[in-house]
Amino acid sequence: ECYVQNTAREYAKIYAAEAEPLEGFGEAPEIIPIFLVHRPANNIPYATVEEELVGEFVKYSVKDGKEINFLRRDSEAGQKCCTFQHWVYEKTNGNLLVTDLQGVGMKLTDVGIATLAKGYKGFKGNCSISFIEQFRALHQCNKYCEMLGLKSLRSTHQKQRKPTSMKSKTLSNSPTVKKTVSKKAREPRDFTSSEN
């Protein structure tokens, strides 16, 4: 838990250093540090300690990407969290994604990290690779992504799809009648959402 959150914190510091000088960007999200404490006299000898966050606690992203969250899409903090995810994804060439962003205002805690199966530079996250796939499919860039010059994931995601091809398929009722059905029409459709 400490390793994941403090690793995400380091990425957040670099993100803030790049974003805050940009005109109109303003404050960047901060991931608060978490510390492991050893208490040898206690029945549970290890505990984590972090700053108490006071105020309305909001989830700006969720681990599985399925929860609808208007505060994420419509609030400044939510948009900046989405941009942070996009920035990390791009900086790590799609190998790592900080997810489960939540907290009070711009102060975040209890985050997760998803990595590709092989990990990223020796680091393996605590979330499934499916979170990266969902992010790539569902992320919608906002003005903060544009301010940082991040590349749209829509064009990248669409390029990875195979072009549709036409194949003949024989109808089962008549061996002499053929019907042309595009490959795309036969494949299951991808789930898409207007949610960030």
From TrEMBL:
Basic and acidic residues compositional bias, start-end: 184-196
Biased composition (Polar residues): 165-179
Presence of keyword Membrane: yes
Segments of this protein annotated with the region Disordered: 156-196
Subcellular location: Basolateral cell membrane
EC number: 2.7.11.1
Single annotated GO MF: ATP binding
PANTHER family, A to Z: ALPHA-PROTEIN KINASE 2, ALPHA-PROTEIN KINASE 2-RELATED
Family statement drawn from the similarity comment of this UniProt entry: Belongs to the protein kinase superfamily. Alpha-type protein kinase family. ALPK subfamily.
Record protein name field: Alpha-protein kinase 2
